């Protein structure tokens, strides 16, 4: 390096973080209780399974095989088996047969996502798949009626009554336009 005194600035340690980082930290223990190593299988399910399958399926739990001790030597340290886990997949009832036919493809996609043979079997749980529904935006209210919209033959001298009739007319007109 030359002697011009230039050095790279250290990266700040604090600063703004995405809210997803905090959500993951909070939800990971819950996911682990259901057998998921991380919450990423749940959050990335549409990308893993494909949008067509993700519409009516969702991972419910992962059952990992129990660790066994090596039977050849008594008192030896437990060895990790290379047995794969079982994925319990929640499926809408009528679609279960389709998922059963595509089970090998789903297992392959999940294992590709993890990068190793994590899932070896698939069990289907026929139960409703609930998704958060998107709320429809409420229709914008129609513009208020023009004060001249009242018939000319009606002479309303009370201002409060005139305003109340105008609000009533606006509400009636908005309900009629929704039908």
Descriptive report:
This protein is of the alpha+beta class. The protein folds into two domains: 20-68 and 81-126, GMP Synthetase, Chain A, domain 3, CATH 3.30.300; 147-178. The protein is built from seven helices and three strands; from the N terminus they run ααααββααβα. A three-stranded mixed β-sheet has the order 1-2-3. The relative contact order is 0.09. The model is unreliable at 76-81 (pLDDT under 50).
Q: Predict the CATH topology of the largest domain.
A: GMP Synthetase, Chain A, domain 3
**Could you state the order of secondary-structure elements as H and E?**
HHHHEEHHEH
> What's the count of strands?
3
Q: What is the rounded distance between the termini?
A: 75 Å
- Largest sheet, spatial ordering of strands: 1-2-3
What is the general shape? Answer: elongated
């Amino acid at each position: 390096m030359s002697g011009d005194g230039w050095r790279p600035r250290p990266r700040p340690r604090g600063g703004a973080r995405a809210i997803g980082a905090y959500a993951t930290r909070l939800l990971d223990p819950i996911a682990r209780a259901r057998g998921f190593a991380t919450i990423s299988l749940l959050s990335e399910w549409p990308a893993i399974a494909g949008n067509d399958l993700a519409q009516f399926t969702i991972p419910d739990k992962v059952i990992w095989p129990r660790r066994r001790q090596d039977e050849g030597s008594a008192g030896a340290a437990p060895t990790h088996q290379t047995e794969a886990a079982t994925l319990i997949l929640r499926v809408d009832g009528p679609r279960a047969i389709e998922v059963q036919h595509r089970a090998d493809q789903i297992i392959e996609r999940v294992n590709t996502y993890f990068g190793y043979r994590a899932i070896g079997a698939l069990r289907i749980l026929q139960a409703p798949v609930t998704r958060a529904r998107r709320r429809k935006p409420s229709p914008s209210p129609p513009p208020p009626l023009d004060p001249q919209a009242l018939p000319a033959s009606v002479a309303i001298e009370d201002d409060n009554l005139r305003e109340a009739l105008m609000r009533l007319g606006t509400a009636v007109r908005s309900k009629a336009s929704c039908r």
